[in-house]
């Protein structure tokens, strides 16, 4: 069934196959599925009006798919990951832009905001891993701290956000040698457990 342009349900329906393709990619590792999921998500964002309530979710999905492709093309075996950072930089930059756009259309009190902040922080953390710009790591830490503060103690995503924050704090400790970062990294990781 073809849903006409302008119909408020079109964007969500256009994105449905993208989510299925992304899920299949996660199961099989077939990069063609991920490429197709990205194309579908791009079409869904394009089909979605600027003021549509699902726009943040669609932008977030696109960013996550692009970040996955960046990771897939950036990571191989341990040596490749450590010494030959070859992932498509453009994918990571567009993932960041999509996550920022998703946040820009999400109210401060929206229940999904903490998750969007956490995803944006993950993109910046990846960029730090490649470019080694401390400001990217600082940005990731700030966003993760905000995400953790906004996440209730019984929320299923809280432990993951605490773990990610602990990892970023540990990375900053490795970079700067500040023992307060190491202590905070340990505290956040213990809280996650």
Topology record:
Blueprint: H1 10-28, H2 31-47, H3 55-74, H4 78-83, H5 89-104, H6 113-131, H7 134-149, H8 158-176, H9 179-192
Helix pairs in contact: 1-2, 1-3, 2-3, 3-5, 3-6, 5-6, 6-7, 7-8, 8-9
Largest sheet: none
Task: Count the domains.
Answer: 2
Instruction: State the separation between the terminal residues, measured CA to CA.
Output: 47 Å
Shape summary = globular
Give the count of helical stretches. Answer: 9
Low-pLDDT windows of residues: 77-85
Mean pLDDT: 89
Beta content comes to under 5%
Classify the helix fraction into a percent range: over 70%
Given helix and strand content, the structural type is mainly alpha
Would you report the number of β strands? 0
Secondary-structure element order, as H and E?
HHHHHHHHH
Radius of gyration, in Å, reads: 18 Å
